[in-house]
Amino acid sequence: MHGIETTWIVLALAGLFVIILIMSGIKIVQQSQTMIVERLGKYTKTLTSGINIIVPIIDKPRSIYWRFSRSNMEGHVYAVNRLVNRIDLREAVFDFPKQNVITRDNVVTEISAILYYQVTDPIKATYEIANLPEAIEKLTQTTLRNVIGEMDLDHTLTSRDTINSKLRHVLDDASNKWGVKVNRVELQDINPPRDIRDAMEKDARRARQARHDPRSRRQQGGSDSCGRRAARGRNQERRR
After folding, report:
1. Is residue 201 located within the same domain as residue 218?
2. Containing domain of residue 51, as a range?
3. Is the same domain home to 47 and 69?
4. Are residues 147 and 211 both part of a single domain?
5. Of 11, 43, 61, which closes a domain?
6. Fewest Cβ atoms closer than 10 Å to its Cβ: which of 2, 118, 128, 232?
7. CB contact at 8 A, 174 and 139
8. Which DSSP state fits 105?
9. pTM for the whole thing?
């Protein structure tokens, strides 16, 4: 009697193991997602949306880093990188925090940007780069510094469309190797130092007054940008 009970227990455990093994070979991939599968450590196939069958134990999904936005108790949004085994093929938004860049006329300016990108080749996104979100972030930061470093402050403040176009072109070319398509790049804020902003506001007030008072136009001619130049000079002296 004891031997029969032991046999049933062994059969039950064996049946449970078979069920778990079969279930582990069934992979359900959601719409607009994909999964990279490796067989004994080597790429074997890419799973599309729907129900897919893989060989248990031998076949395993390959994980990659992906970026997610989270918020804390105070409502501040921050980004975290996590390993996932499914790649989202939808357009993603990359919100970059403010960073300091230096213009061609040596003015330290605070700039933030948003990047819209999409994974077009999951295989390249998995095998051509170790950490895709970090690579995109560092590439955008260095490209932004290079583009702004070729422009004066005045040009930077009035040429957002030009800067966006340059950034998108450079980033799209550089990230093509990673299987990523950069669709849009948008500058959010361009904040010069406080003293330069104050000088710009004074120039704007003088310009408005000149439009309403013709007698002040003759005095306006050579002094519109004096405040800005003086503020820029003070900013450069502090940097030295």
Report:
1. yes
2. 2-61
3. no
4. no
5. 61
6. 2
7. yes
8. T
9. 0.71
Core vs surface per residue 119-135: b (16+ CB within 10 A) or e: bebbebbbeebeebbeb
Pairing of strands 26-29, 59-61: unpaired
Closest CA to 198 of 143, 152, 235, 144: 235
Residue type at 133?
P
Same domain, 68 and 186: yes
Closest CA to 232 of 187, 189, 194, 201: 194
- The pLDDT tens digits along the chain (240 residues) read 566 777 888 888 888 888 888 888 899 999 999 999 999 989 999 999 999 999 988 999 999 988 877 767 776 666 778 888 999 999 988 887 788 888 888 888 888 888 999 999 999 999 999 888 889 888 888 888 898 888 888 888 888 888 888 889 989 998 999 999 999 888 888 888 777 767 766 766 777 677 766 554 444 444 445 555 555 555 555 555
* 68-100 CB burial, b ≥16 within 10 A, e <16: eeeeeeeeeeeeeeeeebbbebeebebebeeee
In the structure encoding, which two tokens stand for residue 240, read together?
């030295």
Q: How many folded domains does the chain comprise?
A: 3
